[in-house]
Amino acid sequence: MFNFDKTNLGRSVEKFESIVGATLKVEGDLVISKSLRIDGTVHGNILQAEGASATVAIASGASVLGNIAVHDVIVSGHLRGNITSPGRVELIDTAKVEGDVTYGSIGVAVGARIAGQLKQIDDLSQIEAHSAISKAAKFSIQRD
To answer: Does residue 5 sit within a domain?
Structure first.
């Protein structure tokens, strides 16, 4: 399902707390605390719970329409939305991202496609990025 080349892109998650299956379509925002693998479709934002350090992985063939604001992001499928990740963003060779990527560190495989701006977070704005993720998660929870 995922074809991570750890020698080129670094650390990847192989066990996930939650999985959106290939035949599942989720509509609405998701707030996660640990790790989420998406094999299906998500139409909504994916946010990290306050005080958590979460990882989202989008499998090849999967799609997300919405923004992602979590600590680490791995994309092998299609994302139409922005990424805010104070940790690491990994774009596998089959990744297609249509949106801006704000990252602490990034690994991009040959073949990955990005239609948007890349912005690295410096040490001072790391705090701002963590704060933005926490605020986004609070907003999502409060509006329900």
So the answer is: no
Closest to 118 (Cα-Cα) out of 134, 100, 96, 136 = 100
Q: For the chain, list residues with pLDDT below 70.
A: 1-14, 123-144
Residue 36 has a pLDDT of 95
Number of domains in the chain: 1
- Tell me, yes or no, whether 9 lies in a domain: no
In tens, the pLDDT along 13-38 reads 567 889 999 999 999 999 999 999 99
DSSP string covering the chain: -----HHHH-------SEEE-TT-EEES-EEESSEEEESSEEES-EEEPTT---EEEE-TT-EEES-EESSEEEESSEEES-EEEEEEEEE-TT-EEES-EEEEEEEE-TT-EEES-EEE--HHHHHHHHHHHHHHHHHHHHT-
In a domain, 128, yes or no: yes
